[in-house]
Amino acid sequence: MKKYKIIKIEENRISVVILCPGNFMDFLYDLEKEINRLQIEDSEVIIDLFLRHGLDRRFFSIPYRNSKFQIQFINRSSLSLEIEKFFNRFILANLEILKLGLLSQGQQERILKTIRQRI
Q: Which of 49, 66, 73, 88 gives the lowest tally of CB atoms within 10 Å of its CB?
């Protein structure tokens, strides 16, 4: 099973959800190869680390230039409310993702309640 899912590709932005609580740097090369196969030009890649960080500090951006991630420019990203809602809707539509993380049942319920309030 892949440890990430590309959920949306726009003209200059790729949205990715990480499907494991581990370090996403471990499979960043695989993601880079997949983006190359899709023949995507220079973009900003938004990474949702929801399963690792919960609802706080969950979004990071990495520039993708010349068929490579520019790791030295990785940043914690504050997204527009609309993009955050898009990621939250994806999680609500794919609740099995919550079981992939390290969250207790109570934590999962609190997170779902918060996500529902935010959309």
A: 66
As a whole-number percent, the residues of the chain with pLDDT over 90 amount to: 43
pLDDT of residue 100: 81
Quick check: 91 and 111 in contact, CB under 8 A? no
- Tokens representing 77 are 């990203």
**Smallest Cα–Cα separation from 116: which of 94, 80, 81, 91?**
91
- Other C-beta atoms closer than 10 Å to the C-beta of 12 total 11
Task: Let me know the angle formed at the C-alpha of 77 by 92 and 82, rounded to the nearest 5 degrees.
Answer: 45
pLDDT at 62 over 90: yes
DSSP states of 72-106 as a string? GG-EE-PPPHHHHHHHHHHHHHTGGGGGGSS--HH
CA dist 110 and 103 (Å) reads: 10
pTM: 0.86
